[in-house]
């Protein structure tokens, strides 16, 4: 298929609410960081992050339903915005 990434659905580990879809590159199994530019859905979130990346202010990643904090906003090496995910607090599900 030539696809270089895997798509994961990320959901809240506390209440199970869907949070976002993510395109993960590389071989590692874990998701330690979510890079904002690889978040694929929902569109409202993607649009918000594209604007925020310009402005440079990213809110921490919270569950839209129960507001559990899932990841903290950080600037990674290479000056890219990312969320450092709290391990064990979120679920990920490989699509397809
Ligand atoms: Zn939740």
What Rg is obtained from the alpha carbons, in whole angstroms?
Answer: 13 Å
Strand order of the largest sheet: 4-2-1-8
- Structure annotation, total helices: 1
Q: Using the alpha-carbon principal axes, give the shape.
A: globular
Specify the helix fraction band: 10-25%
Record field, number of beta strands: 8
Q: How many domains? A: 1
The succession of helices and strands, N to C, reads EEEEHEEEE
Give the integer mean of the pLDDT values: 90
Bound molecules: zinc ion
Gap between N and C termini: 12 Å
CATH fold-level assignment? Metal Binding Protein, Guanine Nucleotide Exchange Factor, Chain A
Unreliable residue stretches: none
Query: In CATH's first tier, which class applies?
Result: Mainly Beta
């Amino acid at each position: 298929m030539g696809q270089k990434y895997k798509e994961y659905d990320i959901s809240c580990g506390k209440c199970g609410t869907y949070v976002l879809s993510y395109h993960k590159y590389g071989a590692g199994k874990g998701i330690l960081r979510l890079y904002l530019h690889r978040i694929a859905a929902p569109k409202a979130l993607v649009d918000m992050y594209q604007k925020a990346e310009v402005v440079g202010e990213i809110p921490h990643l919270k569950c839209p339903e129960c507001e559990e904090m899932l990841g903290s906003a950080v600037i990674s090496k290479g000056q890219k915005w990312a969320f450092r995910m709290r391990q064990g607090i979120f679920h990920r599900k490989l699509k397809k």
